[in-house]
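Our preliminary data section would be incomplete without showing what the modeling component actually yields. Below, a chain of 112 amino acids is followed by its predicted structure, encoded as tokens that our downstream tools consume directly.
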Amino acid sequence: AVVSTQSTGDDDKEREAEFTRHIKDRVSLAKSDFKQLLKEIKCVSHKSKEILRGPNGDSHMREIRQFLTNDKRGLVLDDLPEERDRILDDYLAELEKYGPPPPPTATRPSKR
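Predicted structure:
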């Protein structure tokens, strides 16, 4: 059987495109999981950005990083440290911007 080099090249391009899509999907899922993890960390709040700027900033960041390393969702972006740090910084900035969450009673109207 004779194999055309054209079709092999096309197959390679298709496989490469599929692999690229797969990697993008995995990275997207990893970012989404990382953002969800940030929401679950109790020590992260609307005051975190301010704390990080203050004298206790290093210890607060160590505390946050400790949570991140104890969960696989926090480790998944280790190969993309700049992206991970950007997501963390954006999340802390967003929390600071919106301030404290409303009290739980404010989210449910009275049923009287």
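The chain has a mean pLDDT of 87. The CA atoms of residues 46 and 99 lie 5 Å apart. Preliminary results of this kind motivate Aim 1 of the renewal.
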